[in-house]
Design goal:
705 residues; alpha/beta; 2-enoyl-CoA Hydratase, Chain A, domain 1; Rossmann fold; N-(1-d-carboxylethyl)-l-norvaline Dehydrogenase, domain 2; 3 domains; 6-stranded mixed β-sheet; 46% helix
Length: 705
């Protein structure tokens, strides 16, 4: 019934207050515009009811009680058939374009994508301080497909709307008001308060449909759109969606609204059907699958509030920043006072930078700085809920510090190692309660990189694991649970990848050839520039340890060892695979390294040959794919999608290609098997073999993803 608080259709609730009709969207948790559920249809039906009611003068659309306005379209419906008998979001907004009664959107909470497009279809938009607005479709490889590219430029202009859509930026209500997206800021979405605001400020205000507004192009410079594309080319290379958005906005400036809508729909469908968008949507769902508490348990532990970090080097400092800016109390320990002073200075500079960029207030700055204590007395960590050791990557060093920690902390304290490669089960032997021990492998720089490998030891308890997953999410990380092996998932795969890159050098390529091919594929940095940046001495230490412990099962290349033996460790020494005498941004060939490469080829009796970019990319991607398959076979990785999340967030695998496992699926098993067979016939390539899991995929027993 229209005049009451309830309606038979639970997807919307209606209420009438005098001459104002309220439509309250009720599809928790985020009020997604699900077509198959009938959400747009329910709103449209309500609009029709109110339009035909002569007592209703104003129509208000908002989220029910504590729900946000709308989180947008139901992403799970993208690329899938929807109920053709039900209205979709475009139908709903199209109806708003014809209605002759003023319609108001009350924007609260996260209002994203299709939710914001619905608001743009209304005649007026009011927002409270909880509102977060965005058109983030570009991050899923698509564009706003319900008129966003046509309405937003009409509302706020081309120059403001393009960056907003191309970046998928999230803005608050105040910024939205300044941009012109929001008409009025409000403090309450109570029906009576909303009615009062409408009658006071909009009663006599003539409404103009956003679709009927003219776009001001007078101030646009010649070639504005082509110049805009050129400016984003480097950053957005490989992603078709940002450029399609520019094309749609340009179309809006040159044609009618209806023609622009047709073009937007055409471009939207192209993107939805593209591999690039499929890859980004896959990663979206993969990330959420990786961060779920698994497996579910009846009882969880107390929340973690105080964290101690042992080691004030680059990694320890980055970890500390991650926790203090999320409101945790942190003790940062180091025996070396110089290290502590350096860390304190670095942390202070980073927090001051946040203030300068208006990310925090001065009050918040002082609060965050007060959250950390720099200590050189390890006894002070006794109050910790969680202790993370981030000392030098050497087993004996970690053994010593863990043994010391074990004597100091309470029995319910979680103890974690930030090791990137070492065996968590072996390290757990130095704590009394191994069920409360696990690996928390942060990626450097720890306060920037979102990935966190959570390494579950054989005795790690489920409450401890789940608590750390929750903790990771609190500090803005993407946690992926992995099993125990040397290097876990990410570094074990990169180890194989780097070996193959060096085999390519042995056979005829030079570092620049390999890096150029991989960067053209979509990585920000090729394997040799990456190695030089990380420090070749780090990889050298790992290889020595692996040799000592008989962990090397794949064909070995001596090239990186020879470079290190000459004292070249990459950017830190000015030379590595490259020569950095012109600065780190201008690497040039290192002739000494190139001589080492040719010498090793001769030593192996290899006749050097030209190696195509295609072969370079194929061999390096297949090295990741085959190692990933082995990790799945060994249950080190739980799901193929976990591997893809790790490589997307931790190692720069291009998101528009989805990750090694998704990419393997796009190539197809027949091609992969064929290429491995061909590679195995090449000189120096007897290490290429078809593994057990690949055989199963080839036989149709399982899939890549």
């Amino acid at each position: 019934m229209v005049g009451g608080l309830t309606l038979d259709n639970l997807l919307v609730k209606r209420n009438v207050v005098e001459n104002v009709g309220f439509i309250k969207i009720n599809n928790p948790p985020v009020n997604a515009m699900s077509v198959n559920k009938g959400v747009p249809q329910s709103i449209l039906d309500s609009l029709q009811t109110y339009e035909n009611d002569s007592t209703i003068q104003f129509i208000v659309i908002l989220g029910e009680e504590k729900l946000n306005f709308s989180g947008g379209a139901d992403i799970s419906e993208f690329g899938k058939p929807t109920d053709s008998g039900k209205a979709n979001l475009r139908d709903l907004i199209g109806y708003l374009d014809k209605i002759n009664k003023p319609c108001f959107a009350i924007i609260t909470g996260p209002t994203m994508g299709g939710g914001l497009e619905l608001a743009l279809g209304c005649h007026f938009r009011l927002a409270d301080q909880s509102a977060k607005l965005a058109l983030p479709e570009v991050k899923l490889g698509i564009l706003p497909g319900a008129g966003g590219t046509q309405r937003l430029p009409r509302l706020i202009g081309v120059e403001k709307s393009l960056p907003f859509m191309v970046e998928g930026s999230v803005i608050n209500s105040k910024v939205a008001k300044n941009l012109g997206i929001v008409d009025e800021l409000i403090e309450s979405k109570n029906d009576l308060d909303i009615k009062k605001i409408i009658l006071e400020k909009f009663n006599d205000k003539k409404f103009i449909r956003v679709s009927e507004k003219e776009i001001n192009v007078a101030n646009l410079e010649n070639n504005f759109f082509s110049n805009f594309k050129n400016n984003i080319l480097k950053k957005k290379r490989g992603f078709p969606a940002p450029f399609a958005i520019v094309d749609c906005v340009e179309k809006a400036t040159k044609t009618s609204f209806s023609e622009g809508m047709k073009f937007e729909r055409q471009e939207f469908q192209k993107l939805v059907d593209s591999v690039e968008s499929a890859a980004q949507r896959y990663l979206f769902f993969s990330e959420r699958a990786a961060t779920k508490i698994h497996p579910p348990i009846e009882k969880n532990m107390d929340d973690i509030k105080t964290i101690s970090i042992l080691g004030a080097g680059t990694m320890g400092t980055g970890i500390a920043i991650s926790f203090i800016r999320s409101g945790f109390n942190v003790f940062l320990f180091d025996k070396n006072k110089t290290n502590l002073e350096k860390s304190e200075k670095n942390i202070s500079n980073i927090l001051d930078g946040m203030l300068m960029k208006n990310k925090i207030s001065e009050i918040k700055l002082n609060e965050l700085k007060g959250n950390i204590s720099f200590i050189d007395n390890i006894e002070q960590i006794s109050v910790s809920d969680l202790v993370i050791e981030a000392v030098f990557e050497e087993f004996e060093v970690k053994k010593e510090i863990l043994s010391e920690v074990n004597k100091i902390v309470r029995k319910n304290t979680i103890i974690a190692s930030n090791t990137s490669t070492l065996d968590i089960n072996n390290l757990s032997e130095f704590v009394d309660l191994p069920q409360r021990f696990l690996g928390l492998h942060f990626f450097s720089p720890a306060h920037v990189m979102k990935l966190l490998e959570i390494v579950k030891g054989s005795k790690t308890s489920l409450p401890v694991l789940n608590n750390c997953i929750k903790l990771a999410k609190k500090i803005g990380k993407v946690p992926v649970t992995v099993g125990v092996c040397d290097g876990f998932v990410g570094n074990r795969m990169i180890h194989r990848y780097l070996k193959e890159a060096n085999h390519l050098l042995e056979e005829g390529a030079l570092p620049k050839d390999v890096d150029d091919a991989i960067e053209e594929f979509g990585f920000a940095m090729g394997p040799f520039k990456m190695s030089d940046l990380a420090g070749l001495d780090i990889g050298w230490a790992i290889r020595k340890r692996r040799k000592k412990n008989n962990l090397d099962t794949h064909k070995y290349s001596n090239i990186p060892d020879r470079i290190c033996e000459g004292g070249d460790f990459g950017q830190k020494t000015g030379k590595g695979y490259y020569d950095y005498s012109d600065g780190p941004r201008n690497p040039k060939p290192n002739e000494t390294t190139n001589k080492i490469i040719v010498f090793e080829s001769n030593l192996l009796n290899i006749t050097r040959r030209n190696i195509s970019n295609k072969e370079i990319v194929s061999r390096l991607m297949l090295s990741l794919i085959t190692e990933g398959l082995d990790l799945l076979d060994e249950n080190i990785a739980s799901r193929p999608s976990d591997i893809d999340v790790i490589y997307s967030y931790g190692y720069g695998f291009p998101r528009y290609r989805g990750g090694p496992m998704f990419y393997a699926n796009t190539i197809g098993v027949e091609k992969i098997v064929s290429e491995i067979e061909e590679f195995s016939k090449l000189p120096n390539c007897d290490h290429w073999k078809i593994g057990n899991r690949l055989l199963k995929i080839n036989n149709g027993e399982i899939n890549f993803i």
